């Protein structure tokens, strides 16, 4: 359907669709996801359709700016109403803990005015004057188009998480990671583990990845996430979503699972989503009984090697929380991002200011809670 009260601007036409039932728009959406200037597997149909159908909510809408002459999509992202921190509502790009990346899908030929039309569309579709795009990489191609002066863009709380580059810079990062004490210790642990049986590091893709994903979910559920109730298998909805998503991505070679095993038993696994020229480390799990062999570090360093061997990949995003103690020493690059807040109307500007303070308050409370938990422990 066309966006309400928002007409076409020249050849650019804004549309709003239900992402669970895209109908004849699916092919254009898929084409943009596959060729986007900044790859984002979480905003393509293979991920978003099963995620919203199984996990919800039902009020998320896919906003897209299209070229009405060709039907080609210029920019797209899912939006819904969400509180920024503790109370301020915004029309928010639907980046969640299952997919912490808010980069809109952008056609490389999109004209400069695409960004402003897109922001207007988001406010119209959701019915809120403030637009928020969480986890937006600061150097992505979409950022300059979205940071139009009329919308008073503001980057809230920039942060950085682990990632790595490809090519020569990636090789340099690997050399730094696999040096000194770590260069001796990790192989020594593998030798010790080999006393229990054959040790293997391997990768699976395609239908093999679909089958291996069942083993991954069992491994995840056997650890602390299972005890905490946050493993995929703890919730039938998350189990169904994950199975459908992995199967869909496997059909287009969009998933790789790296496995560290001994005597045929997987003791660490890393699920990597492949999109365009980037890899995204989606989920990791390891057997806590083997923790003294550093299985998480072993499989993470192996994943870095595999990524560097794939000459199509220009980099990878760990999707990990900033400061992650295991992955940051191994993946030496950094992905810098922020929550982009945009508003054009006076009401939206007031919400923008309040929203920035709201995010700050929530962040400070979370830090305080973590310190208290550490103190109690």
UniProtKB/TrEMBL annotation:
InterPro entries: Acyl_CoA_acyltransferase, BioF2-like_GNAT_dom. Gene3D superfamilies: 3.40.630.30. Pfam families: Acetyltransf_6. Residues 181-310 form the BioF2-like acetyltransferase domain. Residues 156-177 are annotated as: Disordered. It comes from Roseibium aggregatum. This is GNAT family N-acetyltransferase. Residues 156-174 have a biased composition (Basic and acidic residues).
């Amino acid at each position: 359907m066309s966006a309400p009260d928002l007409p076409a601007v020249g050849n650019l036409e804004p549309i709003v669709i239900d992402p669970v039932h895209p109908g004849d728009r699916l092919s254009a959406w898929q084409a943009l996801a596959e060729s986007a200037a900044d790859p984002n597997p979480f905003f393509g149909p293979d991920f978003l359709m099963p995620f919203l159908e199984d996990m919800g909510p039902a009020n998320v809408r896919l906003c897209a700016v299209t070229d009405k002459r060709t039907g080609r999509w210029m920019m797209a992202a899912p939006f819904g109403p969400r509180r920024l921190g503790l109370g301020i509502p915004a029309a928010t790009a639907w980046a969640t803990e299952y997919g912490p990346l808010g980069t809109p899908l952008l056609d490389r030929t999109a004209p400069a005015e695409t960004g402003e039309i897109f922001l207007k569309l988001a406010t119209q579709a959701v019915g809120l004057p403030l637009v928020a795009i969480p986890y937006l990489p600061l150097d992505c191609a979409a950022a300059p188009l979205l940071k139009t002066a009329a919308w008073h863009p503001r980057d809230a709380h920039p942060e950085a998480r682990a990632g790595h580059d490809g090519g020569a810079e990636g090789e340099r990062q690997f050399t730094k990671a696999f040096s000194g004490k770590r260069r001796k210790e990790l192989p020594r642990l593998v030798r010790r583990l080999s006393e229990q049986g054959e040790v293997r590091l391997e990768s699976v893709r395609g239908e093999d990845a679909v089958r291996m994903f069942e083993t991954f979910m069992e491994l995840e559920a056997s650890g602390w996430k299972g005890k905490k109730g946050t493993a995929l298998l703890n919730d039938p909805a998350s189990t169904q979503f994950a199975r459908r998503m992995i199967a869909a991505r496997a059909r287009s070679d969009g998933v790789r699972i790296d496995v560290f095993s001994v005597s045929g038993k997987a003791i660490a696994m890393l699920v990597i989503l492949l999109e365009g020229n980037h890899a995204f480390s989606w989920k990791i799990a390891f057997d806590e009984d083997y923790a003294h062999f550093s299985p998480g570090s072993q499989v993470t360093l192996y994943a870095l090697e595999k990524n560097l061997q794939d000459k199509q990949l220009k980099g990878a995003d760990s999707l990990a929380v900033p400061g992650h103690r295991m992955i940051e020493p191994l993946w030496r690059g950094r992905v810098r991002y922020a929550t982009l807040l945009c508003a054009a109307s006076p009401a939206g500007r007031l919400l923008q200011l309040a929203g920035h303070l709201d995010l700050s308050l929530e962040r400070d409370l979370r830090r305080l809670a973590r310190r208290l938990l550490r103190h109690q422990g």
